[in-house]
Amino acid sequence: MAQFSKSKITLIGVALVILVVGLVIWNKQKNSSSNELVIGVSPSFAKPLQVAADEAKQQGINVRLVEFSDWNTPNITLNHGDIDANFFQHQPFLDNAKKETDFKIKAFAVGAATHVGLYSKKYQSFEALPSHAKVVVPNDPVNQGRALQLLQQAKLITLKQPDNYLSTLNDISANPKQLQFIEVEGPQTARAIDDADLAFGYPHYLRLAKTADPEKALLFDSNTDKRFAILFAVREDYQDKDEKLKKFVEIYQNSPRVKQALDADFGSTLWFPGWK
């Protein structure tokens, strides 16, 4: 009987040890997960951010990048609290998203801004564009307005309010060539260029899709408009208590290696720092 009790006590002791070890491992995994900074990104911005993440890791900051292929999911996911921040949109886009939804999201810091252009794989000039040419533009209100302003700069259309960056196709007052517009999601403009006569495009998306030389637009926007710089966005209730995100942003903005990555992805003349 004594021997049985001793064996029973031994088994209980082993079970307790296993339980304690399990709890320790679970706790470490939980802490590791809670110490991880998760940022949702567009694939076209991923490489420079990964360079920053690699440098951040050397400083004890664990950053995980989650890629989204569209421009809706990153804000939905952030608003739900599934990620800590996202990096894919500029302030006008965020303002419009908040106006159309109940998202509680705000800008945390500013990243790179890029020039945009009008590209054609069929024609070498705007004069060569035929009547009824097919023109690709983004389908979201803000970036469509930006595309229309660039088409106006090219003297292909006239807008009712020339300075309104929220203009839509309905706001075109003159269209001499009777251009036919194809609306697609912003990330898809780079691929739609193959089926169009002219396309509004982002250099970094074109470089990622490898559909056209991002350096060879028929026209680039002439402004270094920092309002279109890409933002690090967070929930309105986000608190950077241990300053992980702040430190990560500082690395992104100041690292020579990140600058090299931006030059490689965007083209050294096609991006500029939105934070300066």
Any overview of this molecule?
- With 276 residues, the protein is α/β, with parallel strands linked by helices.
- It folds into two domains: 37-114 and 226-273, Periplasmic binding protein-like II (D-Maltodextrin-Binding Protein, domain 2), CATH 3.40.190.10; 117-220, D-Maltodextrin-Binding Protein, domain 2.
- It has nine helices and 14 strands.
- The protein has helices spanning 2-34, 46-58, 73-80, 91-100, 141-153, 189-192, 203-209, 244-254, 256-266; strands spanning 36-41, 62-67, 85-90, 105-110, 112-114, 117-119, 134-138, 158-159, 172-174, 180-184, 198-201, 219-220, 230-235, 271-273.
- Strands 2-1-3-13-4 form a five-stranded mixed β-sheet, with helices on both faces. It has a five-stranded mixed β-sheet with strand order 10-7-11-6-12. A two-stranded antiparallel sheet has the order 5-14.
- The longest helix has 33 residues, at 2-34.
Summarize the helices and strands and which ones pair or pack.
Blueprint: H1 2-34, E1 36-41, H2 46-58, E2 62-67, H3 73-80, E3 85-90, H4 91-100, E4 105-110, E5 112-114, E6 117-119, E7 134-138, H5 141-153, E8 158-159, E9 172-174, E10 180-184, H6 189-192, E11 198-201, H7 203-209, E12 219-220, E13 230-235, H8 244-254, H9 256-266, E14 271-273
Parallel strand pairs: 1-2, 1-3, 7-10, 7-11
Antiparallel strand pairs: 3-13, 4-13, 5-14, 6-11, 6-12, 8-9
